[in-house]
Specification:
This protein has 217 residues and is mostly helical. The chain has one domain. Helices cover 81% and strands 0% of the residues. The chain is globular, with a radius of gyration of 21 Å.
Length: 217
């Protein structure tokens, strides 16, 4: 029975993450936080690239067509693979970042658990992206002439789902750290603040180095 119950987690999680994110991610972390995490991140990144391409192809704005790079199926496949790899890299970067920022706020999750939370929180976006690709491919976005698809009825649905997906990510992150979604939001903001501080420090350092180099020249 334990084996069957464990197996059910990996089937039910793809739907239950929508409505019971905390309970779902808890079951996942208790079972195997590494399972599917990298794969989900890769698929999410690859599909995002395909969706961008599909959206640009069907964009009603003429200037969008002029700026759109002309790539064939092979180019799109390579771009999708690249974006999938980038999203996996970002999973590890932000997994480490939010493990640190969460710990600063009293969280108890390790990097593997945080990566699981961030990866599974992308499942709703995967569903949404697949639907968006199909809608774009079939020309069903429902945007009036001269209106960008993001401003259509489907664009509104996309916005709502995207907001809910962000809430899911906060709930998942909060669950693995053992605190509320609001504190998880604090951990996210703290992590982003740390990135900004590091970038500003690097820019200042580079500027000072260039200024010193010119003074010595």
């Amino acid at each position: 029975m334990d084996g069957e119950a464990a197996g059910d987690i990996w089937v039910e999680a793809w739907l239950s993450i929508w409505v019971r994110p905390r309970a779902t991610i808890r079951r996942i972390v208790d079972a195997d936080p590494r399972k599917f995490a990298v794969g989900i991140a890769f698929v999410a990144g690859a599909l995002a690239m395909v969706n961008i391409r599909a959206s640009l192809v069907n964009a009603p704005m003429p200037h969008m067509h002029m700026r759109m790079p002309q790539i064939g199926p092979l180019g799109l496949a390579l771009a999708a693979l690249f974006m999938g790899g980038v999203n996996v890299a970002m999973l590890y970067v932000f997994g480490a970042l939010y493990r640190w920022s969460g710990a600063m706020l009293g969280g108890a999750a390790n990097a593997v658990q945080v990566r699981a939370a961030l990866a599974w929180a992308q499942v709703p976006e995967i569903y949404l992206t697949i639907v968006a690709i199909l809608v774009a491919a079939l020309g069903l976005a429902g945007a009036p002439a001269g209106v960008y698809p993001r401003h259509s009825a489907f664009g509104l649905i996309e916005g709502i789902v995207t907001i809910w997906a962000f809430v899911i990510s906060l709930k998942c992150l909060g669950e693995v750290h053992g605190f509320s979604a609001w504190r998880a939001l604090g951990a996210v903001l703290l992590g982003l603040l740390a990135i900004v501080i590091v970038l500003v420090a690097v820019m200042i350092t580079v500027h000072l180095a260039i200024t010193a180099g010119r003074a010595l020249a």
